[in-house]
Amino acid sequence: MFYWVVKAILGPLLHLIFRPWAEGVENVPKDGPVILAGNHLSFADHFFGALFLRRKVISLGKSDYFTGRGVKGLLSKAFFSGVGTVPIDRSGGKASEAALRTGKRILNENQVLGIYPEGTRSPDGRLYKGKTGVARLALESRVPVIPWAMVNTFEMMPPGHALPKLGIRPGVKFGKPLDFSRYYGMEEDRLVLRAVTDEIMYALMELSGQEYVDKYAASAKVDAARAAKKAVKRPHP
């Protein structure tokens, strides 16, 4: 209920201020379980990704969003609950299995599950290598995957910016459903999981027009931080 209240309040304001656009909304089925696999460009994706859909999109988000203290913590919890985010532990290992179980439960309830296969926001607007959790969910739950591409949200609200820039129209594109039924029963095969994930990322690349980087976004962020640290320590001539 809270999700629809937030959407009813924010929706008209977002349309009025930013004039967002969408393509391929008809590709999202009106009922039944489905995975929306999206690129992750900006914090603004949480606002515009599901704006044009009449179905609730439930996404998996790090538990830190729900455990903060004070007023800021309460606001964070309220916001992410309002945009349909379910808290999960993303530390890896057993936590990853728990996240997959949560995703399967959502799909078993015939709902729409939104996933960002890159695992984190893009540091530079490019599309990074996808993690195979999305493939496992698709094969184990036997549901279609719809590429879900955000457009212009990086330019509108790049990393480090607390407020979006005006004058940039954000968009979202929904691709044709991807059918992976030929791989059902093969969800334990790592090569199959990688092939399915790469097919999803390729569809996202074509839909979004982004440059693809065959590297995990989290690793790219670590490398960039190390390079910046070395640059600071390097003595000036």
Automatic annotation (TrEMBL):
<protein>
    <submittedName>
        <fullName>1-acyl-sn-glycerol-3-phosphate acyltransferase</fullName>
        <ecNumber>2.3.1.51</ecNumber>
    </submittedName>
</protein>
<keyword id="KW-0808">Transferase</keyword>
<dbReference type="InterPro" id="IPR002123">
    <property type="entry name" value="Plipid/glycerol_acylTrfase"/>
</dbReference>
<feature type="domain" description="Phospholipid/glycerol acyltransferase">
    <location>
        <begin position="34"/>
        <end position="153"/>
    </location>
</feature>
<dbReference type="GO" id="GO:0003841">
    <property type="term" value="F:1-acylglycerol-3-phosphate O-acyltransferase activity"/>
</dbReference>
<dbReference type="Pfam" id="PF01553">
    <property type="entry name" value="Acyltransferase"/>
</dbReference>
<keyword id="KW-0012">Acyltransferase</keyword>
